[in-house]
């Protein structure tokens, strides 16, 4: 059977374009990075209320993304939410023990993420440690309730 | 009254019979053992259904991305949220529009052509003569087309998404002046590769199978006259469009409906 | 062994939906001869070939080819048997996406592992036999009807079959093409020792080459014999067919109510 080179070339280019497109969707659109798993370390933080925080949410420090939320579970002992964070390994031993974690909202209606703020303690957090000082998510109903009860008591 | 019930029953049996026939047909043609010859036949069909559909899919993708950005901008700007344009364009394309619109275009461009081609081969006794020569037309004619469609449509869908997102970029960033960093940044923050790109691809694979299956089956099963061919071609487009839209709802409910 | 028929059709019954096509057809097709099966249009001559080729299954009766029951074979054995048959279709049925050369090479490529040079030699030999060696690079769409049929013939004999089935080889051909095809069928049969079955309603051409003739009508064999004996057969249906008379036992009119009553029927008028 006679093979048409231009046709083979066309199909080859077509498939190559498809694979490159998928790569584009992976890297440029969904922001995948080929990070090696060992490049991270774990911290835990307990929050009284996490609002609508979800796994894979960003963890930021001064607005810079430094890690991700890997798991959220209920702490059976305290009945609050235990959030597992995975942070860049470069930060291991750089965060002071009194670092605070807060659940913040991007914009008025945006997604929720975890923001870290470094304190002044000379001792540093290491893999598997727990962040003690946390700040829960703002829940709109609670805010309104507080506001109303303040109005009434005034 | 009894006559009505009878005719309903007969129609039900006809539908079931056609479904059974097409299922057997799919099973028999799908298992074609790849050989060097088969590889080449597949390549030729890839050219026919894939490369030749590329132009219409890419042009449509560009325009749909541009329209999405334009429409999205006018709504988002009211909330001061035009930074979320990239997120909106990319998510609507990846999850919904690319798989569905690419599949519909594919049904119109490649599906109908497959039906007509196989139907013409049947009408001119090419399939029968192939069988008499001792070659199974399911393997020789149908299987390469089925596999080519199955591979080509997901690739076309990727192309549609990429060019649509680029079209959104052209309108949103270059024309309407959304900050470039927030267009890509918001997109990257909100698009998840597995959840969004992956599920879109799964949709596209399902649509590819269904559309190609309908197209080749309609071609293989038609009445071999010119009227039969034109009817079957119409049926291919109608059935595959309905199947794509219906399945899209089911798949969306399963993937994003929170049933997991 | 020479005298035993190559194809033996016994008590064949076949119907399509409500319509009965064959009711008890008996045929014996001798080895190495040209056997013609003739009959008016719509008597299922093509269906008969499809039954012999195993593409359709009969309701009752059987078809033996060289002692093998075609419809009792497994799919694989049937495909093996088909390698020993060639069939020339009414429309030629050339693969429209392949050139003339590739069409003839097709059976060789799928059934043999011959090297390309040998395939080329064989294809050119077959094309030479039908006089179209020079047309090998053309596509089927560029051929005239007669040429397409000759290419199809070359393809049918590509694997040197023992049995060739011709489905209406002369229909829609100009006199020159008809003459060429008649001569080709005769020559191939004599030179290659084929067993040929020609299904046709072209009386002159068919009778000029056939060794034995079967006439089929109303789902049964009406007459059979050598071409010379057939003409004097006294069955009125056969004589109507052979002499080409417009009306007779095979009626000119499709079954209808009485003409006089039909035309005066006022109820049927709008």
Automatic annotation (TrEMBL), chain A:
**Pfam families assigned:** MlaD
Chain ranges of the Mce/MlaD domain: 42-118
User: Entry's InterPro entries?
Assistant: ABC_MlaD, Mce/MlaD, MlaD_Phospholipid_Transporter
Write down the NCBIfam families for this protein, in alphabetical order: OM_asym_MlaD
Q: What protein name is recorded for this chain? A: Outer membrane lipid asymmetry maintenance protein MlaD
What organism is listed for this UniProt entry? Billgrantia zhangzhouensis
Per UniProt, what is the name of the gene that codes for the protein in this document? mlaD
TrEMBL record, chain B:
Functional description taken from the UniProt entry: Part of the ABC transporter complex MlaFEDB, which is involved in a phospholipid transport pathway that maintains lipid asymmetry in the outer membrane by retrograde trafficking of phospholipids from the outer membrane to the inner membrane. Probably responsible for the translocation of the substrate across the membrane.
Q: Which organism is this entry from? A: Billgrantia zhangzhouensis
Annotated membrane-spanning segments are 48-77, 97-120, 146-169, 205-224, 236-259
Q: Main localization of the protein?
A: membrane
Q: What is this protein called?
A: Intermembrane phospholipid transport system permease protein MlaE
Query: Would the keyword Zinc turn up in this protein's UniProt record?
Result: no
Matches recorded under InterPro entries: ABC_MlaE_roteobac, MlaE_Permease, Permease_MalE
- This chain is encoded by the gene named mlaE
Q: Does the keyword Transcription regulation apply?
A: no
Q: Where in the cell is it found?
A: Cell inner membrane
The entry's family comment says: Belongs to the MlaE permease family.
**Superkingdom of the source species:** Bacteria
Q: Which UniProt keywords apply?
A: Cell inner membrane, Cell membrane, Membrane, Transmembrane, Transmembrane helix, Transport
Membrane topology per the record?
Multi-pass membrane protein
* SUBUNIT field: The complex is composed of two ATP-binding proteins (MlaF), two transmembrane proteins (MlaE), two cytoplasmic solute-binding proteins (MlaB) and six periplasmic solute-binding proteins (MlaD).
From TrEMBL, chain C:
Superkingdom of the source? Bacteria
The ABC transporter domain sits at 7-243
**PROSITE patterns tied to this protein:** ABC_TRANSPORTER_1, ABC_TRANSPORTER_2
Q: Per its record, what are the GO molecular function terms? A: ATP binding
- Keywords assigned by UniProt? ATP-binding, Nucleotide-binding, Transport
Q: Which Pfam families match?
A: ABC_tran
Recorded protein name is ATP-binding cassette domain-containing protein
Q: What species does this protein belong to?
A: Billgrantia zhangzhouensis
